[in-house]
Specification:
This protein has 6 helices and 15 strands. By secondary structure, the chain is an alpha+beta fold. It has a 9-stranded mixed sheet with strand order 4-3-1-2-6-5-7-8-9. A 4-stranded antiparallel sheet has the order 10-11-12-15. Helix 4 packs across helix 5.
């Protein structure tokens, strides 16, 4: 029996978690009872029409991420929840949520198709939920997500229950990458990614309190940004404090060397008072942090993971956002 756990190995190696969030245009989250097999959308409760749609979208290489989600009520409720999170354009705080409640899971594929064609589907639901937190528990994909994701899901639901908040939901989720940092989570609608979570760090993320420097250990990056820019965003977040979570951000890569060892990045952010700041920095490959790791429990070979360090950070523009009426 293979006793190798990728999450334990990367902890021992001291791999930094930052820069490992993935950037998608759209997340399509489908409530579906467990169990889920390795290829989640081939699981027994996933209808054939949805399997075909996921295959078509994958073949077309569209920037859409399909995930299965479930919670403790999934097998009891009379309806299935479909969540579509669409990335905002320009200065952004993350994604826009569209929620649908469907009587049968077979109706999900036609509704998703309608939505992708730009038509407004029926079954859109209104509620007060303003945060969906996904925790990967997909143990058939990677055993670290069973070993660490499942217990953490129960911890997280208890933490939320103790806060008595009704506007946040926690879901078990199929694989969304980074299982070598299990337990991992995505906090939507922002799409910030986290890893190596524990009770204390999760409480801080939920309530946005405590020493923000502690996020350095668990913050994988903001999924609206290119992975190299995620390091720059993290450094600005750590310097600005929890207020940063109320800001809107846009980032771009201005130049990169052919070997990708040096990248010139730019990040613009707007505060709540509509002051706009633009920073530029060099992102330089950090050989001291770039290591070889097995990216999953089943990996047969190690691969190099490039890490960047921020250098020459400077403020290049300061403005006030004038909102058109």
């Amino acid at each position: 029996m293979n006793s190798f756990f990728c999450s334990d190995a990367t902890r021992q190696l001291g791999e930094e978690v930052i820069g490992s969030a993935t950037d998608y245009q759209t997340y399509i989250l489908v409530e579906c009872p467990l169990p889920w097999i390795t290829n989640a959308f081939n699981s027994k409760w996933v209808p054939y029409n949805l399997q075909i749609l996921v295959e078509e979208v994958t073949k077309a290489k569209l920037p859409i991420r399909f995930l299965l989600i479930a919670n403790d009520l999934t097998h009891k409720v009379e309806h299935k929840t479909l969540l579509i999170y669409q990335k905002q354009v320009g200065l952004s705080a993350g994604y826009i949520k569209h929620e649908f409640r469907l009587p049968h899971i077979e109706q999900i594929a036609p509704v998703v198709k309608q939505w992708l064609w730009g038509k407004a589907p029926d079954y859109e639901a209104e509620n007060s939920i303003n945060r969906d937190i996904l925790i990967c528990t997909h143990g058939s994909y990677d055993k670290c997500c069973a070993r660490y994701g499942n217990p953490f899901y129960f911890q997280a639901t208890n933490t939320l229950a103790n806060l008595n908040w009704e506007n946040v939901r926690i879901w078990k989720s199929s694989h969304f990458g980074g299982h070598r940092f299990a337990p991992t989570a995505i906090d939507l609608p922002e799409a910030r990614y986290y890893g190596r979570l524990d009770e204390d760090s999760f409480q801080a993320i939920l309530t946005r309190t405590g020493d923000i420097q502690n996020l350095k250990q668990v913050y994988r990056g903001w999924g609206i940004l290119h992975p190299a820019l995620q390091v720059l965003e993290r450094d600005l977040m750590l310097s600005q404090g929890w207020n940063w979570f109320n800001y809107k951000v846009a980032g771009k890569i201005l130049e990169q060397s052919l070997d990708n060892n040096t990248i010139l990045g730019e990040l613009t952010f707007a505060t709540k008072s509509n002051s706009v700041y633009t920073y530029q920095a060099k992102l330089i490959k950090d050989n001291s942090k770039t290591i070889k790791v097995k990216s999953s429990c089943s990996a047969t070979q190690s691969s190099a993971v490039v890490k960047y360090t921020v250098a020459d950070l400077c403020l290049v523009a300061e403005d006030v956002l004038t909102l058109s009426k």
